Amino acid sequence: MSQEKKGFFSRLVAGLSKTRDNIVAGIDSIFSGFSAIDDDFYEEIEETLIMGDIGIHTTESIIHDLKAQVKERKIKEPSECKALLIDTIKKQMDLGENAYEFENRKSVVLVIGVNGVGKTTSVGKLAGQLKEEKKKVLVAAADTFRAAAIEQLTEWAVRAGVDIIAQQEGSDPAAVVYDAVSAAKARNADVLICDTAGRLHNKKNLMEELRKIHRIIDKEYPEAYKETLVVLDGTTGQNALEQARQFREVADITGIILTKLDGTAKGGIAVAIQAELGIPVKYIGIGEQMDDLQKFDPDEFVNALFHMGQL
């Protein structure tokens, strides 16, 4: 594991401490407090996982798998179930290879999310990381309705050392994307990242706006690989899951950026989102620094959650 990865893993372990206290302390007390594997034992685990925002459906799946494995392996001691439980949680999150195809092709990445989730910050961090990987990156300030969004993205673009395409506040987001696509082609950019709006309270307008943006990309840049990432605030737990569901109704979501996992007791939502919606969590954020956004590794996440040491 590289030094950068080690640093992020230790910050992830620290950031998930509240979630760990919420879930793992309860799980450990169940494993040590029960002398037999019975219905009460499973019910206690179920309740603890649901309280940790892992979600009802995902929890039911985890318990179902756990019961099957206990029966198959003829396990009698509750303490022997911990490793099985951890593996079962990892299995729930396994959606195969999390694709980062857009990094290797000429691509347009649309980033959507409601105000306050860390969307613009995530765009800036992602741009900075791709620049570090020697990619030519361009960002577009297409969230033209939120006050200060353009200024905020401009600051991040300067910090990341990438070019930005922007217009005035209140201008047509699709027009900004049109300019950005033209610039991306003219400058031979590898990745164009568009910071777009996410006004879920007006889904009809949002849907129309995203359709318009997609039409422009399809017409002006048909050869580009398209990625749509939705940014969710990890501190909001089940609300984040509901937001993901609603965004899925208006856009073809290819991945999730889950922010603010440091200091939340609801980190289990990462498990619920990936297991229940079948949309991969591709990045997680645990702080304000450029490298505090990292690719999501389910094994590493569950190890950090249960403080299992580094991979």
UniProtKB/TrEMBL annotation:
- Which of UniProt's keywords are assigned here? Cell membrane, Cytoplasm, GTP-binding, Hydrolase, Membrane, Nucleotide-binding, Receptor
Q: Name one GO cellular component term.
A: cytoplasm
Cellular compartment(s)? Cell membrane; Cytoplasm
Q: Name one GO biological process term.
A: SRP-dependent cotranslational protein targeting to membrane
Residues that coordinate or bind GTP: 113-120, 195-199, 259-262
State the Pfam families in the record. SRP54, SRP54_N
What is a single molecular function from GO for this protein?
A: GTPase activity
Q: How does it sit in the membrane?
A: Peripheral membrane protein
Matching entries from SMART domains are given as: AAA, SRP54, SRP54_N
Major location (coarse): membrane
Instruction: Quote the catalytic activity from the record.
Output: GTP + H2O = GDP + phosphate + H(+)
Domain (SRP54-type proteins GTP-binding) ranges = 280-293
EC number(s) on file = 3.6.5.4
Q: Its biological function? A: Involved in targeting and insertion of nascent membrane proteins into the cytoplasmic membrane. Acts as a receptor for the complex formed by the signal recognition particle (SRP) and the ribosome-nascent chain (RNC).
Alphabetized NCBIfam families for the sequence: ftsY
Oligomeric form and interacting partners: Part of the signal recognition particle protein translocation system, which is composed of SRP and FtsY.
Question: In which family does this protein belong, per the annotation?
Answer: Belongs to the GTP-binding SRP family. FtsY subfamily.
This protein is called Signal recognition particle receptor FtsY
- Which organism is the protein's source? Lientehia hominis
As recorded in Swiss-Prot or TrEMBL, the protein's gene is named ftsY
